Amino acid sequence: MARTTPHQVQDPPLYRRIATQLLGELRDGTVPPGERLPGERRLAERYGVSRETVRQALEVLRREGMVATDRRGSHAALSGEPVRAPSGLAFPVGAATAVAADRATVAWETPPPEHAEALGLAPHRPTLVHRYESAGAGGRRTAVTSFSAVALAEVEELARYRDRADGTASAQLWRAYDWMRRAGLTLHHRDSITPLANSPAVRVTRRVHDQYARPLEITDLVLDDQQGALVYEFTLPADGSTAGPRSPRGPAAR
């Protein structure tokens, strides 16, 4: 009779390990309450397991009340944490609300050259790139955000997106600033807004760095609106801090 080693006794079944990983994403807000989960096939590809393993993992979470399933598929059933964002800012800059977007995806790819330079990335080095598109009564908005190596190293919730950043799956990072603050980072924003030549649109460039002047992310947003250019700065303290915002440098039309 074969002996069971201590290692074998301690290792949970594969479907239990997948359920634990999914539960972590549900609890930290990577998958917000009520948001539909990817299909079984996509989850199987993400974790490198069979669809049957994914099915068993989802059944574990259903029994524990963490996931609910209806005719539209499975979705997070947790009540979720309140989002602590004293400035009321949404991610990405220009989002109409903190949770609404026509399309939002992430990819692991080489960022635009100006983003790489701003983030201190070597040429052709890939990073997490977020794309946002929205069209409505307020006009069309498109935003591209690139994250730095510092942001990915210190913000666990962002780092988790690397393995599923295929550029096609929905990725609502509306809690990105909250995640950064929970990681102990004070967020300094600098937004530049300029009209585009021969166009009714304006470009907004946001640069975010932390209390150590390390770059965290840069966003370029283009929206259909006509405004004078302005530059302003403000600070979001790390979670738990009582420091107030910086005095703005604007608006100052150019």
UniProtKB/TrEMBL annotation:
<feature type="domain" description="HTH gntR-type">
    <location>
        <begin position="12"/>
        <end position="86"/>
    </location>
</feature>
<keyword id="KW-0804">Transcription</keyword>
<dbReference type="InterPro" id="IPR036390">
    <property type="entry name" value="WH_DNA-bd_sf"/>
</dbReference>
<protein>
    <submittedName>
        <fullName>GntR family transcriptional regulator</fullName>
    </submittedName>
</protein>
<dbReference type="InterPro" id="IPR036388">
    <property type="entry name" value="WH-like_DNA-bd_sf"/>
</dbReference>
<keyword id="KW-0238">DNA-binding</keyword>
<dbReference type="InterPro" id="IPR050679">
    <property type="entry name" value="Bact_HTH_transcr_reg"/>
</dbReference>
<keyword id="KW-0805">Transcription regulation</keyword>
<dbReference type="Pfam" id="PF00392">
    <property type="entry name" value="GntR"/>
</dbReference>
<dbReference type="InterPro" id="IPR000524">
    <property type="entry name" value="Tscrpt_reg_HTH_GntR"/>
</dbReference>
